Each structure stands twice: as structure tokens, then as C-alpha cells.
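Board work, copied verbatim: glycine dehydrogenase (aminomethyl-transferring)
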Amino acid sequence: MLNNQGRPSRPDTAAASEAATFTGNKALQIEEGLLFEIGQREVTGIDLPEAPVAKSRLGNHGRKTEIGLPGLSEPETMRHYVRLSRQNHAIDLGLYPLGSCTMKHNPRLNERMARLPGFADIHPLQPASTVKGAVDLMADLSHWLLEMTGMETVALSPKAGAHGELCGMVAIRAAIEARGETRGSVLVPESAHGTNPATAALLGYKVIPVPARADGTVDPAAVKERLSSDVAAIMLTNPNTCGLFERDVVEIAEAVHAAGAFFYGDGANFNAIVGKVRPGDLGVDAMHINLHKTFSTPHGGGGPGAGPVVLSKALAPFAPLPFLRRGEGGPVLVETAEATQDGERPFGRLTAFHGQMGMYTRALAYMLSHGADGLKQASEDAVLNANYVRARLSDLFHAPYGDRPCMHEALFDDHSFEGTEITTLDFAKALIDEGYHPMTMYFPLVVHGAMLIEPTESESRASLDLFIAAMRDLMMRAKAGEVEHFRAAPRFAPRRRLDETRAARQPKLAWSEPAPAAAAE
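↓ predict structure ↓
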């Protein structure tokens, strides 16, 4: 079998046929070096006073050598990072079809709200009496998250999805221990997100996989076969990673509860069902919500992520510190175990502070500007767009689960390339030349050579039509036998196709100054 991953990083003859330039730049596509290649370690970009001599508190962990950072002026620093940003794809540049991770437009109204001084300039160590507005905002956000999910309480402190999974599973473990039991295994469907089994394993649970049916969903009978008094929970993604709604979710939840276990719902795909389905009504006991997916806040670009966890009545007492209590005079921020009351049994502290205030502000602004009808329409439009992509590509691309309508993302596999010598990776690299970030490749693992496409509700029909036309053109070129077009791609990216497998297995984590070039004779 040919290894199609390793490729020279230099431009090939097709891309280098244009006249070379002295600088190596191509018009405004500027060749950018590393900071160490641009700056000088002997100087700094600004004048600093000599640091006072102080006794180190690091002991043997203190640095023994100079740190060796390059010094750059402010213009040099700005230019470096702006140039690098031009080499990245972003939702503000074009459609971002990444399946399994909702990449939707971030309304600028949200950004303006997040920059209000009363939210942007507060500090985690300020007295609670000076941040009443922020606490009230957190309470409002909590209220609407509970309203949309049908749950009892919410832990706002988790920083992202996997952090939220950890929070929910620790709460489940605390609830089981509170009733004097010890359980050692967790059921995880093969169609779940990869962080689910990782989280369970991190907490010491044995992971028991649950296979998917031929139609891509979980069979309640398969769950019941694996339930026992040792099972603490099931971790199920709904809609699942195949882009399908688990139609037997209520029966699965009832079976899990009958066995004394809990139902953890992965909420990464909540964008498909907001305003349509309340997870609490389906039997979910804990679920994280990626604010930076469902409610539009940036994926890390505007600060840390946010993965609040909603908890059922059975798990609510075990929500971690710090948490909000609904008091008669308004919400109260409970920060220590000494401040808890009867019925509150927090499992501990998951993180030091609610450090992602900007994410809360953006998410609440998104909710309030859309309203209940707008949030429902966003979900419906996300599903509509995904099904539009699926329908328009179904005659050329192979869908592993037939003509069944999908939810928020359309799934195809590498049966689409039979007889062409083209792989999913080759196709994705050619898509870069068309100006698109590739769809999710090779995931979910239950589908061979998977191509997972999530257009979200942000895209107009015109932008979808152009993307679909590019996909169709590439597939027709593949079926026409234009193998080299795909093997050489991408031609027009700042860097050619790299050996990504080798880079992951043999990373170079330190920069070494290259040897001086030999003088020309």
C-alpha cells in the first residue's frame, strides 16, 4: 500500500513556475520565519530596569541557564503574529466544514458585550461584593441553560468539553459513593466522542465499549447486555458522532437507571437540538455544554473555553465549588466548603475560579439576542444545511448509513473513492487548494475513511452551493483518474503536504540555530 502522507514541504514545479522573488515572498503572501530567526537574543524590544536580586523560591527547579528568548520591537511582534494569522483558516475567512466540532459565526454584538469594563476588567480575587453584576449575569446564564436542558442545577466552572466531562463523571462517582457503593466500569458507545472513554479511564474506570448498529445508532439490547452492578454510568453522545439522533435514548436511560447507574450525555452536539429537545426529559443526569460551540463564543481565540455542566436532581447536591446558590436576596456565590448548607455536598473544587467571564457574557448575549424562537430556528437551520449538503452530494459520495436524514452533520466514507487510487487524506488536501479547511477526516472511527461535514446554521445557500460545487468537481476529477492532482496537493498553501504522522511521533520541541551556509565559490 502506498504511503501518501509524506510529502516534500518545498513547492513543486507547478507551484514554483512563477518568477522567483529575492525575498521569497509572493506578493502579499509573506514568508515568515520563527521568532528566533527574526529577533535577537542579545536585545529586548523595550527598555527594562535591572531586576532586583532576590532569593529564588524554586529551589532545584530553578533555571540554570539563560532563557534565550528573542527580543523584538512592537512592530516586529505585531507583524509576526498578523502574518501567521493570515496563514490560518478561520470562520471569518470562509465556511469551516469541520464535523464533530461546531464552527459557527461569532456575532460582533457578543464581542462588544464581553468588552464592557464591568465584565472585561474584573479580577478573580476581587471581593464578591464588588462583582454583583457579574454574579447576576452568571445567574441569568445558569437560568437559561437549565431552562433549555430541563435540569436541576449547573456547574459553570469547567473550562471546556473534556473538563466538563470530568466534572460530570466526578459528580456521578460522588453520588455513588454517597450511597455506600463502589462501581468500577463505564459504558461508552463506539459512536461517542473520543474524550468520553479518555475521561472514564482517567478516573480509573474500566471502559466497556458498546457497538453501533448497522444504522449507526446504539441498540438498547446491547446496553442491557453490558449493564451490571459494577457499571457506574453510560457516556452517550446525542446526536451522536455519526450525525444521527439516538432514537432509543429514553429506553437506554431507563435501563441504565434501573441498574442503579447514571446517564452522562455528551453535549458537544447540542447545537442540533436547542429549543427542540430537553436532555433532562430524555433521562440525562449530567451533560456538558460547549458554550464555545452551541452559543457561538470563540474556540479559544477570545480566552479560555467554557463547558458548563448541567446536573439532574440526583446529582445537583454534588456540584463542585465554586457554585451559585439561589438566595432570597439574589444569587450567592458559594466559594468554600464552610459556606455550604444542608443538602449541598460539593465533591470539591474543579478549578480555582470562574475565569472565563468573557465566554459567559458572549453566550448570554447570543441567547438574549436570539430569543427562544431564534435559538430553535438556529437548530433547525443547522440540521437543514447539513441535510442539504448530504442530498446534493449523495449521488457522488457514499453515505455509510444510506438515505437516512442526518442531524447537524453529513457523513460520507472512502467507498466514494473506489477504483480511483485516491484516499480521504488526498481529497482533503486537494480541498485546501480550493480555499476550504478540510472536513473532519477518519472520524468517527466506526466509519472507514470518514468525511464528516458540519456546515452549521451560519452559512447561506450561496456559500453552501459553492462548497458543494467544489466537492463535486474534485470528486469528478478523482473519478476521471486525475490521481496526480490529488497526490501533489496542496499546491497553493504556505506549506506543502507534510509527514504529519512523523511530526506527531518525532516532534522537535526546541529550536536549534542552523549551521551557517557555506560560502559560494
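The CA atoms of residues 274 and 376 lie 6 Å apart.
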